Amino acid sequence: MKRHFYYLFYFFLLHLCSFQSKGETETDALLNWKSSLYNPVSLTSWSQSNSTKHCSWYGIICDSTNSIIELNLPNIGLNGTIDKLNFGALPDLTHLNFSGNQLLYGSIPESISNLSYLVSLDLSGNGLTGSIPRSLGDLTRLEHLNLGMNGFTGTIPVEIGNLVNLIELNLMYNYFTGSIPEAIGKLTHLNVLHLGSNNLTGRIPSELADLSFLKVLNLSTNSLLVPIPSYIANFSQLESLDLSGLNLRGQMKDLFIGSNGSLSWNFSSLPNMQYLFIRDNFLNGSLPSFFCNLDSLIALDLSRNQLSDELPKCWWDIKSLQMMILESNNFSGEIPISRGHMPPLLSIHLGNNSLVGGFPSALKNCHDLVVLDLGKNRLFGEIPEWLGYSFPSLKILSLRSNMFNGTIPALKSLAKLQLMDFSSNNFTGSIPQSIGNLTSMTVQQTWSKLDSSKFTYMESISITWKGNELSFQQNLALINGIDLSSNSLIGKIPSELTGLFGLLFLNLSKNHLTNTIPGNIGDLQELEFLDLSNNVLSGRIPPSIASITSLSFLNLSNNNLSGEIPMGSQMQTLDNPQIYAGNDGLCGFPLAKACETDESTIQGSTTDLDNDSDKEEIVWLFGFVMLGFIFGFWTLLGILFLKKDWRSWYLDNIDRMQEKLLDALKSSSSMGKSSSMINEELDSSSQFSHQFSYTRAPDWGSRSSTTTN
């Protein structure tokens, strides 16, 4: 019995030693890899001093035996390679996630095949290059493989067909060439297949027809041969399909054809379709009405094709539609009116078509709208007042390049608006003071995506930026701006505009704006683009403009501005004289016309009359003086009316002053006047005094005409 106890104790010690040796092997491998990285500040917990507590290190999860089973280090700025990591020392690893470390470079080592228990591998969003090692096919337990958004090259290895347990395969945004391997058809458990944005060629293999459990299929932006195989219509569980950028041609209704040339695509066989993207192709013809039957459709993007004719009248019947992207086609006619129910739309892009009619009344009940782009069409008429209060969540509003007229409605409830483009229309009247209600423009924005329950769609918008039309997508959150150029707006620039401190660009050019540039224009410290050209602005350029250190584009040409151009470090970089052309009264750098240095000019350059503040002060001073005179006059009159003693005293003093005047006139005989003339004057004056004395002090209470003497 005692011998058995010793055997058991011996085996326990042996197991403990082997466990400790294994732990040290794992920690040593990780510490050696850490030492190869550049400044791994997020891995400070990885140290030799607490190597026995490696399971508490950042990003590490262990099992019950203290073996490392998960290594999760996404988005922490890793800088180095992964081929210095000894994968053989991590045999129990099931999850490896190094995604989003853009400075992680190099290739995937062949030794990754040692991770035989690996279930999930995510190396997306890094700077990895080279080809995919064929040994990756040995990881037969893999269910999730994401190598997207790297710089991988070469062909997709056929060994990938060995990963028969794969549920998700993502190879998007790389540089893979060659054809889609037929072996992918063996991955019959696949739910998600992302092959978009590569350089793949050849036909879409028929073997993909076996992927009957597919929910997401992305083949976009490749050079694959068309037509699209009809078997895709048999993927009854398909929720998302992206066929963008495949050079698809012909009519939309004939897009999916069978081997006999007949239409075999039936959207009714895809009841779960939620996201359909076929943008950037050459499809033409009208939009088939069968789209209206896709009750589950959430996002539809058919932009940048050659589709034409009117939108189907049933268009607003798509019950679940949130994102409708139809821009840059040839659609014509009026936007359909609502037949009652409106879908829960978040984003509408109908820009750059040939649509006509007034502002679509069907949108009035789309209270959740975030993006509305109707720009570059032929829409006309006045903007309804409800635009200003119907869309409390609206962030992007583009009506540019239409024929809208009338005044800009009051912007009462558009507090979240960050981009307002009304340029190139026929708007009249003044810029509404309610523009100050756009409080989201007081700070820089942080959003760039519209999120749905299962899908994230990156928004994009085109604007005129520094004279060029640019499309903003990844950096859309940075765009905070207003463009009201090329209209017929009048009046002054409202001071409320300078309270939108987050503005990145402001374009009010080609209008009929008058008065001066607001003196506190310098409060717009984020401003990079300012165009006030071709107006009737007058007065001096505010000195505060020189404090906008981010200003890289400025155009004040063709106004009536005068005085010295303000100086400043940023203004010195804006050295093109054309910025100020057409303002004959301007002088100073960068113009050839030097400013006068007399005292009046110097005094004028240091006096801020930008908003007629001095003139207003003079008006107020005159008003206060007149108010004081009127108040004093009526106060005196009231006292004399109510106080008989004061009234008598006041008029007695007038009598005394009159007697002194008569004495002065008598003494004027030395100046050549005859005594008779003087006597006549005295008699006349006496008579006047008597009359004044009779009327000066009546008893107001009894209306008596008794004289007071």
What can you see in these coordinates?
One of its GO terms (molecular function) is kinase activity. The chain is α/β, with parallel strands linked by helices. It is built from six helices and 43 strands. The chain has a 20-stranded mixed sheet, with no helix packed on it. Strands 16-18-20-22-24-26-28-30 form an eight-stranded parallel sheet, with no helix packed on it. Strands 3-5-7-9 form a four-stranded parallel sheet, with no helix packed on it. Mean pLDDT is 82; it is low at 1-24, 257-264, 447-456, 598-613 and 669-709.
Shape by Cα distribution: elongated
Mean pLDDT: 82
Main structural class: alpha/beta
User: Percent range for helical residues?
Assistant: 10-25%
**Strand content range:** 15-25%
Residue ranges: pLDDT <50 for 5 or more in a row? 1-24, 257-264, 447-456, 598-613, 669-709
**Record field, number of beta strands:** 43
* Structure annotation, total helices: 6
User: What composes the largest sheet?
Assistant: 20 strands, mixed
Please give the alpha-carbon distance between the first and last residues.
149 Å
Rg over alpha carbons: 42 Å
Offer a quick outline of the entry.
The protein has about 700 residues and is of the alpha/beta class. The chain is elongated and about 135 Å long. About 35% of the residues are buried.
Keywords, please?
single chain, about 700 residues, alpha/beta, 20-stranded mixed β-sheet, 8-stranded parallel β-sheet, 43 strands, about 15% helix, elongated, disordered N terminus, disordered C terminus, transferase, transmembrane helix, kinase activity
